[in-house]
Amino acid sequence: MLDIWLSGFLGLLQFRELLFLAMGMAIGLFFGAMPGLGGATALALLMPLTYGLDSFSALALSGGVMGAVPMGGSITAILLNTPGSAPNAATCLDGYPLAQQGKAGMAIGAAASANSIGGIIGTISVLAVLPFAKELVLLFGPPEFFLLTLLALVTVANSARGKLLRGLITGGFGLMISFIGYNDVSGGQRFTLGIDYLWDGVHLVPALIGLFAVAEMINLSVKGGAVTRDIGAVRITGMWSGVLETFKHWGTVIRGSLIGTIIGAIPGESGAVAAFLSYSLTVQASKNPESFGKGNIQGVIAPEAAINAKDGSALIPTLAFGIPSGAEMAVFLGILVLHGLQPGPVMLVQNQTEIYGLIWSLTLSCILASFVGLLLVRPLALITLVDSKILIPFVLCVAMVGSYAVDGTIENVVVTAIFGIIGYLMIRFDYPRLTVIVALVLGGTAERNFQQSLMISDGHWSVFVARPLAALLVAGIVMLLVWPLVRGLIKRRAARTAAS
C-alpha cells in the first residue's frame, strides 16, 4: 500500500502536474472568494477544458481547485461577512466580529493554519480508510442519516446560550423555509404559491448571501463608517498571531478535523453540515460560550478545520460508490466519467495511482492556498478600513452578481434581497442566524430520511434504535438535551454553596 501512496505522490511532482495544480489553486482561491460561485462553478467551467488532458493532469487540476476554495471563501467571510460558499458561512460568525475589532489578520492567519492542518488530517484519514470504504459507508442507512441530522440540529439549538427560545424560533422558521418545494418521498409541491422557481425550494446559496453579506451591508449603512476604524490594530495584529492561536487551541483543531472527516465520509452530507456541527460542538465544549459570535478565535478555527478535512474524506463515497456529498463532488464525478474513470470498486482497484495522486493534489493545494492567504493577509486586512460609502455598493454588487451566477436566474437575486432584510431584522433584534442556516441546510435531509425510515419499517418507530449506530446517535441526542439542565443545576448548587 505504501508504494501506491508514493507512486501517486511522485506522479504529482512532475512539472506539468505541478503547473496544473498551481493553476487549479489560483482558480479555486478566486472562485472561493466570490459569493455564489464556489468550487462547483469552477469545476463546471473547467470540465470541457480538461477534455484534452490526460486523466492524471485533469485530477491534479481538479484537486487544486477543490483544495483552495475553502481558503478563498474564508477570506471574504472574515473581511466582509460574505461567505464565498455555504460552509464558510460558519466562519462569518466569529471571523467578521474579529475583523470589526481590527483583528482581521489574526482571523485569516487562524483560518489558513486550520485549513492546512484540517486538510492534512483529512488526507491521513482517507489514506487509512479508503481500503475499507465500502464497509464504512454501509453502516449508515436512512434512520442513521435522520438521527445524524437531528443530532446536528439539537447541537446548534443548544449553542444559542442565553437565547434558547429565540434560537428555537429562528430554527423553526428555517425548517419551514426548508419544506418549500417538491417532496422527494411522497411527491407534490408544497408552499410554492404557484411560483415555478420555488419547485426546487429556496436555494441555499442566495439565501446565505442575503443573510450575511446583504444583511451586514444594511447594518453597516445604518451605522456608517468602516468595518473597523482602528488602523493600528489592523497593522499590529498579523497573521502569525492567528497561526499561534491555532496551535494554542489544538483540541479545537483535532475535534473539527475529526468531525469534518466523519461527515465527509457520509454520502449526501454537505460541507456546511460539517462546519456548523464543528462550530456548535466547540461552543458546547467551551468554558466561555458567551464569547462566541463576538469574536472568539475558536469560532474560526473549528469550522475551517472541518471544511478541509471534509473535502478529503468526501472522496470516499464519491470514489467508492459514485455517491457525491454535494454539488462540488457531483460536478467532479462528471470529470471522472469524462476521462473514462468510472467510480466504484473497479476504480479502487485499477486506478489507484490516479486516486492517490488526486488525494495528494487536494492536500498540497490546501497547504499552498493557506500560504498564499498568509502572504496576502496584511494588504487584505486593509479592506476593513474602506469607508462604507465605497464598500457597501461594491459588496452588494458582488453579492447580487454572485447570487445570479449560481444558476442564472433573476429569482435568486430576489431571494437574496428578501433574506438580506430578514437577516438585518435578526441583527437588529438580536436573534441568532446560525439556527436558520443549519435548519435550511438540514431540513430537507432530515425530512426525507425520516419518511424513508418509516416506510422501510412499516411505520414502526423502533427502527430508530434497532441498529447499534442508531442507538448510539439517539443516546447522543438525549445527552445533549439533558446536559444543559444538569449544568444549570450544578451552577445553581455551586452558587448557593458560595453564598452560604
Most strands sheet: 2 strands, antiparallel
Which word captures the global form? globular
Proportion of residues in β-strands = under 5%
* Mean pLDDT over the residues: 77
The number of distinct helices, counting runs of at least 4 residues, comes to 24
Provide an overview of this structure.
The protein has 500 residues and is mainly alpha-helical. The chain is built from 24 helices and 2 strands. It has helices at residues 2-12, 15-33, 38-46, 55-80, 89-100, 104-129, 133-137, 142-159, 164-178, 204-223, 231-236, 239-248, 250-264, 271-285, 298-313, 315-321, 327-338, 345-350, 352-375, 377-381, 388-405, 410-428, 434-456, 468-499, and strands at residues 181-182, 189-190. Strands 1-2 form a two-stranded antiparallel ribbon. α2 (15-33) packs parallel to α4. The longest helix is centred in the C-terminal third of the chain and has 32 residues, at 468-499. It is globular, with a radius of gyration of 22 Å.
